[in-house]
Design brief:
The complex is a heterodimer of chains A (82) and B (182). Chain A is an alpha+beta fold and 82 residues long. Chain A has 3 helices and 7 strands. The N and C termini of chain A lie far apart (34 Å). In chain B, strand 5 and strand 6 form a beta hairpin. Classes of the chains: A alpha+beta (82), B alpha+beta (182).
Chain lengths: 82, 182
C-alpha cells in the first residue's frame, strides 16, 4: 500500500491526516493527486484551490516526480517554520 | 554521571554521519560537528555556544541566530503559537540543508535546533549556529540555513490572536525570494 499523509491546514480542511492507496504501478505525483481527488470527490475544491507542496519518501518533490508503490507521499501547504 | 567533557570530539570528514551521545541528565555532545534537534523543550544559548566552541581552536568566527515568537504578525496581535511538523521528514530536511551549507562554505561546527508544539510570546523557536575560521562564511551560512529552513523544512505555524481566533500563518513571498538568492 502507498501511504499518503496530509499536514497543517490541508489536514484540517480535509478532516483527515492520512489515507492508503493501492497503487499498482509508478505514476507522477500529479496523477496520484488526481486519483485521490477522483476517489474522494468531496475534496476536489480543496485540492484545486490550495497551493500545495509535496514530498516523496520524506524528501521535497516536484509534482512531476515519480511515485512507486510502497512510497510515502505527503501533501502540505508551503512551510512556515523558523 | 558520565563526564562528557573528557571525551574528545571526533572530527570526521563525512558530515552525514552525525553521532550524538547522551548520558543521564546531560546535554548531547557534538561528536561530529553537526547537531540537529527538533524538540518541545527550550534551549539554552550559552550551552549551545559552549558546545560549538569547546575544543575548537580553529574557528575565529561564530554566528548564532535565534528566532522568537513575536507579538505582531501579518497585522494581527498574537498570543500563542502552535508549531506542527512532519516528524519523519523534519530532521532529514534539516540535515540536507546543513549538508548543502557545508558544500558552499568553510564551516566546521553547525547546530540547528527547532522547537515544536505550543509556544508563548517571546519564546525561542529556532537556533542556528555555525563556526568558521572566518566571519564571512559564518554570517553567510547562518543566513543561508535560515532562508532554506524557512522554505524547505516541514514546519507549520498556527497562531492564536488576542481576538481568540486561530489561523495558519501564510508563507511569504519575501521568504521565497530570500531563499532564491543563494
Amino acid at each position: 500500500m502507498t501511504q499518503i499523509l496530509f499536514f497543517a491546514q490541508l489536514r484540517e480542511d480535509l478532516g483527515c491526516d492520512s489515507i492508503e492507496l493501492d497503487l499498482q504501478r509508478p505514476c507522477s505525483v500529479t496523477e496520484l493527486r488526481d486519483r485521490i481527488v477522483a476517489e474522494n470527490p468531496q475534496w476536489q475544491a480543496i485540492f484545486k484551490h490550495s497551493l500545495l507542496l509535496c514530498s516523496v519518501n520524506q524528501t521535497l518533490a516536484d509534482f512531476k516526480d515519480l511515485v512507486t508503490p510502497g512510497d510515502e507521499v505527503a501533501f502540505f501547504p508551503p512551510v512556515t517554520g523558523g | 554521571m558520565q563526564v562528557l567533557q573528557e571525551q574528545k570530539p571526533v572530527r570526521m570528514t563525512n558530515s552525514n554521519n552525525v553521532i550524538l551521545t547522551r548520558s543521564e541528565g546531560s546535554r548531547s555532545k557534538i561528536m561530529n560537528n553537526t547537531h540537529i534537534a527538533v524538540q518541545t523543550e527550550d534551549f539554552d544559548l550559552g550551552t549551545e555556544y559552549q558546545a560549538l566552541v569547546e575544543d575548537n581552536t580553529q574557528d575565529g568566527g561564530v554566528a548564532l541566530f535565534v528566532g522568537r515568537v513575536r507579538e505582531f504578525n501579518q497585522e494581527q496581535q498574537v498570543t500563542t503559537l502552535e508549531l506542527e511538523h512532519y516528524p519523519a521528514m523534519t530532521e532529514k530536511a534539516l540535515r540536507d540543508i546543513a549538508d548543502q551549507a557545508r558544500q558552499r562554505w568553510q564551516i566546521n561546527n553547525l547546530c540547528i535546533i527547532h522547537r515544536v508544539g505550543k509556544l508563548e510570546l517571546s519564546d525561542q523557536i529556532v537556533l542556528v549556529g555555525v563556526t568558521s575560521p572566518h566571519r564571512e562564511a559564518a554570517f553567510e551560512s547562518a543566513q543561508f540555513l535560515m532562508d532554506y529552513l524557512k522554505t524547505r523544512a516541514p514546519f507549520w505555524k498556527k497562531e492564536t490572536t488576542t481576538a481568540g481566533t486561530q489561523r495558519w500563518v501564510e508563507a511569504q513571498e519575501k521568504d521565497q525570494q530570500a531563499a532564491k538568492r543563494w
